[in-house]
Queue: 2 jobs
Job 1
Amino acid sequence: MQVKVVQQDILKTRADAWIVNLFEGVTNPGGATGAVDKALGGQISRLIELGEFTGKLLETAVLYPIDAHAAKVIIVGLGEAEQFTLERVRQAAGAAFKVAAKGRAQTIATIVHGAGIGGLCPEACAQATIEGCLLASYRYEAKGVKTDGKAQPSQLIVVEHNGDKLAAVERGVSRGQITAQATNLARTLVNTPANFMTPTHMAATADKVAAESNLQCEILERADMEQLGMGCLLGVAQGSAQPPKLIALRYAGNPGGETVALVGKGITFDSGGISIKPSAGMEHMKNDMAGGAAVISAMQAIGKLKPKVNILGVVACTENLPSGTALKPGDVIEAMTGQTVEIVSTDAEGRLILADAVAYAESQGASKIIDVATLTGAIGVALGDVYAGLVSNNDELVAVIEQAAQQAGERFWHMPVHDDYRELYKSEVASLRNGGVRGGGAITGGMIISEFIKDAAWAHLDIASMASGEKTKGYAVKGGTGFATRTLIQIAENLAQK
């Protein structure tokens, strides 16, 4: 879909649909909404008067003017002005876009939500508006599935009346396109069936992203992992016929500066291995590479945005399957660091492949390491699908992540870390066990990964309950969410400004 910014009155913009907005409780529309209301003979005011539109968040109404430059007008509710945020801009933009795109609309014009009466930064509002629209427009084109045959809108016009804000709006729209495209790439990677989204396919995708986004890409093969002593990653991979891959994407935006590593779990299908999962719902375990998808996609955006920071993206990719060669409970394997791990459950495989991945990142000079993974079901028990988990040994890095997440409209809850939790994964036959306790499972799962980092500041993002969604609300669509992609991008940009 083509996106462009124009400086003009929305009333003069030819489009199949116009999108305007209204805060909850407003009875006399102002700004662009007021201008449209006046041009339509007070129809918006009439809706308010009749109680048919209140401005409640994500509420929409559609008008069909007889004599205007648009075939229909969508009014979207922004909710209460006192609770207005950039995330509500995204949600409102997405909800309005979905309504505007119904029928035969090919060209949609929208004002920037929140930059007027809302009083928020015009650049940030423009970015959030375009993110909401592009994320709401996402569709996964499944092979062999009949579609409704309706073409997607071909053009989105962002209309800004104030010339003093135009440059800021253009910057925001440009950045919003990059971040939304990255998030949608992560969604597609997660939505792709596991027989197509193999470790080899993920590596090929990373190589393509690197070629298009000013990145260097190195793919480590099984022989490379053997030479480096990555017994944990290789141990998980030994049950599958698919060859494992370790993806390393490098962005050098600040030569001589520190390197920050983003490390993703890329289990392209997780059966649980010998400790096999229940069959009900196992088809959803194609999403166990969502952390790796977020890292690859974030690196795509970072390469295009060009922040002054060095970012290393590492993704460990393999399947976790049962076979005659698969890991067994009770086995002991050796990590790249020389530490040994007793296998209690082969379904606790994410921390194993991440053990070698974070160790590799540190060996490449990373002084800050953030891993992102669909690591535990326990995080969903603790937080539901409202927050992802955050486990870290460094409060300064936690603050960076929390700030970035707030800007990106994603939620992480900082879980406690204490030495007493280490007692839960002690082993009598190895350096540590890969799990085996029920209480504190989300915390110990993350802490086990930290045991393979020597000096770097570390944080772990557990996105297991956020990687896929069943809701269609705001800019959300059913399926892969691309969660954490925008936060990782924002982390890179914020670190570049320090």
Job 2
Amino acid sequence: MQYKSVKNLIKPLIKGGHKWQSININGDDEQPKFYFSNIQWIILLISCLMLFKLTKGISKDIIGYVMSAFSISVSLFMSLLVSIFDKFENTKFETSSKTETDITRLIQKKNFFKRFISITSYLVVLSILVIVLCSMTYIFNISVRNVEPNTFTIKWLEIDFGLTIKNSIIIGYRIALNYFLLNYLFLTFFITGSAYEYYMSEMDRRKIS
């Protein structure tokens, strides 16, 4: 029962986090054709290329720093979510006696709150996922496993299927960890830039009388 409850809560959160990455404050939806945006496909490519440089993955020392940083980020983002929702609760969205310009601004403000809260909540889940993936490095001692391209062979009779499966799992794990780390940084810059753009536009609209 608890698993289903968590699943029913997390699934729309992740879906909303993906959705609001491509919706601006005017409500215009520009969903990518191939699920990921162009920059996220580039991030995925970089995550794969990193395997050739980091044949043992990210070192345990760096993993430790990452876990500490992401643990702090979870609490910071949770505090930020509470603060932003308080501002939303104190915002009046009545449209009576409002001009079309005022209504447009209210729509933009509401969309900004939805976008900011959706992506920030998604970042919290992403942080927890990164912490879980990093902890696996310690549990399974993954950082000592050296996986290079010459580890694999295309000669059928020389294939060690057990070793191949293990190495494939390690490669998949490292690609996932690299991608989530880089995507986290990208989304953090993205939501920070979006907030700055909206705040500056609101400031510019207020004239000094």
